[in-house]
Model the fold of this input.
Amino acid sequence: MIRKSVLPLAVAMMSLMGLTGCGVFGDQDPAESAAREPADGDASAQAQHALPYDVKPLLAPDKEYFGVALDGAPTSLKPVDAFAKTVGKKPNLVGSYSSWGDGFNAKGAKNVFEDGSLLYVSWEPFKPGLGTIADGSQDTYIKKYAASVRETNVPVAISFGHEMNGHWYPWGTKKQTPDNFVQAWRHIHDLFQDEGATNVIWVWSPNVINPVPDVKLKAYWPGDAYVDWTGVVGYWTQTGAKTFDTLYGPTLRQVAGFTDKPVLISETSAEPGDRRRADVRQLLGGVEQNKDVIGFVWFNIPKRADWRIQSSPLALAEFKRLIADEAFGFEVPKS
Done:
């Protein structure tokens, strides 16, 4: 869903009349007006006059997103190029992680966009806590982050506080309540709207409910007006679920009870082992066959296990075969 900018009416009218940035109202000498226009090389000044990137066409694409998270990306695209060479197709969604307090990676966002892809940011509030975010104490930081997103003016998907229904993160169930999470999410979203950062796709990303069946997701839902995609985090392990439905189905059915937002498998991979090739087949086949699922992000980083697809030759061969299908991947439009 595209959010309308909440810039004051007077500023919007000034922009339409070409008066933004002028010191006085009234008639002006044309030469003086021309002198005020930004130089061709002044990208920052030009960005102030550009229309906000419209993310609406990206929300429910005809083809599936093919995403990947890689060490070193998106500040450098060399890891993305190497991965594309390995699997035989360039991903069009590049995952990244940002701790609370970090600045927005504008360079990385531009790199990804110029390469025909979309940046996906998992924004992780390790501290100071959801209550402190919701009460306004962090507004200076949030507004600065939002302003940087707006000024970059490329599409960005942001997932705040992923896996909030689990107990393994400080923003999860051990230290926070569902109300804490919802209030923090809405406050961040509202500040982005106030800053005119409408070029964001907001992704609400719980973990699959299988390991935490007693935690009900609806209590963590910020509302349809605050979310564009439902993200689902779920990994294939050697002792876990063996089919797309048993891994993701219980979560998808629970979510369908309170929203019909498009679904992205927002973080996944398959543990190395005898089942890995079959798990890859289940993942890609399930994404393609499920009409509500718009793609996936493959975690290709070694962390407590070697999740890289290239670490298993047979699984890599299966991944290459399936990802070659034209249903996966498309170039993100420049406007």
User: Anything to note?
Assistant: Residues 99 and 124 are 5 Å apart (CA to CA). DSSP finds twelve helices and eight strands in the chain. The first strand starts at residue 65 and ends at 69.
